[in-house]
Protein: Glucose-6-phosphate 1-dehydrogenase
Amino acid sequence: MAAFSATHCRSYSYSHSSSINGGQNQRFSFSSFSRLSVPAKAIRNSHQTVVLMQDGVVATKVTPVEKETPKEKLKDELLSVTSTNEWDEKAGFDSSENESTVSITVVGASGDLAKKKIFPALFALYYEDCLPKHFSIYGYARSKMTDAELRNMVSKTLTCRIDKRENCSEKMDQFLKRCFYHSGQYDSEENFAQLDKKLKKHEGGRVSNRLFYLSIPPNIFIEAVKCASSSASSGNGWTRVIVEKPFGRDSESSAVLTKSLKQYLTEDQIFRIDHYLGKELVENLSVLRFANLIFEPLWSRRYIRNVQIIFSEDFGTEGRGGYFDNYGIIRDIMQNHLLQILALFAMETPVSLDAEDIRNEKVKVLRSMRPLRLEDVVIGQYKSHSKGGVTYPSYTDDKTVPKDSLTPTFAAAALFIDNARWDGVPFLMKAGKALHNKGAEIRVQFRHMPGNLYNRNFGTDLDRATNELVIRVQPDEAIFLKINNKVPGLGMRLDRSNLNLHYAARYSKEIPDAYERLLLDAIEGERRLFIRSDELDAAWALFTPVLKELEEKKIIPESYPYGSRGPVGAHYLAARYNVRWGDLDIEQ
Structure:
């Protein structure tokens, strides 16, 4: 079966703003970051129609003129099929004025996220020829480090695509030559001004577009943005800032953070990243629903009995509990990753694929959600457990965690959307650490077949006959639909079978990491997979009241053994709404 593909890397649309503080935005588009090779003045004065081809060649259509002067004759020669370099040389234009460059600054470059995710994602984009012709990458952190030391650190984490390993070492060397380092304080305008000088040197007089990735703790976001705004924003291109979660701890702190950011940035310049939105199967949600006639009519309360969004990790905090204990599993996973997936799943058909149209529909879903009640939430905390001669620690055994901590490492919740499409359908979420497996999936359980002729073949357990759509986000990405089927033979024995799209078997190409997609989107100015401020407000409005109630009442989390399926209370919560967790089915 043929694969549908437009181009190797997408065409890019820039939102061109004069500075980090806002200013007038200019919009222009072109493919593969190629420069605008024909000056507008020359186009206006010519007698020919000029078309920019994808390979950088200028194709023309000649319009006859009555009389040509020597000057017009020279123009005609210049407007013949000519490469962009030849154009610049003949016309005497400074090509750097018509080119743009992208400078990517990773603020917090010495941290784990930068080393494990951001630099490898940037290299993967470079390896796939998805970055512009002119780009540079700067690491910025407080640690003292030379360019060579940064390159050595980064080189240890870089990998090549499984399906394109050729020239890997050569491409890696070329990439590392584009990586530089500047040491400075996050709250020092002077240090950012020094960074600005280095960036300008590499930009070489071209239109400078700058992307700052804040891979730093949220308590220093504002100072870093303030310094970048005053000392290192672009003077003639766009400036964008990627902000990592957490976006506050509740509605109040999130509002303060947003208000502070908007002192120095416009909303269009803020890219709040949730890496789960960049995962292939989450990206495929809208395609699955809106591009397949068989699913869209079923996507409502009439046919769907419940929806389950499940996240599990098979490891605990293991020495990293200091950060986690301040937030807990609800803030860390449910309020952002899982709620964003729910909004994408449940939204109405957007007017278009434009970022604002999609985000408008997501906000409508979040604002339609019933307030979350404490009785619809179960929390847990893992305890020590021995298995196979190995003893696994409890959460409070982590030296960075207080011994009396009540921070949940597991949570389950039943949520409802009070609109015409989803009225009465329970959306069950659960997320936890130190569980029996690692994974993330969306399970859609359909209603029982009314008047089913084969009910007696299923016995009393009608759930065994329920059709179920499973979207496995990670690991081993897959989409499968559980159907009822006759077992071959002379008798009438029914079986539950899977119609399975297993990505590893169907597609030979390795699935890109979520950070690759999101970084590319930020460079392009594509905001569809980033969180808008009103989305964030609606998400916190849903969870803040129950979080405050849990903390004020000092609700004690239910204990569950390390490596188990979680606390028993989660099963009672599901049973209250006549639901059985789909991931507990031994067939899965």
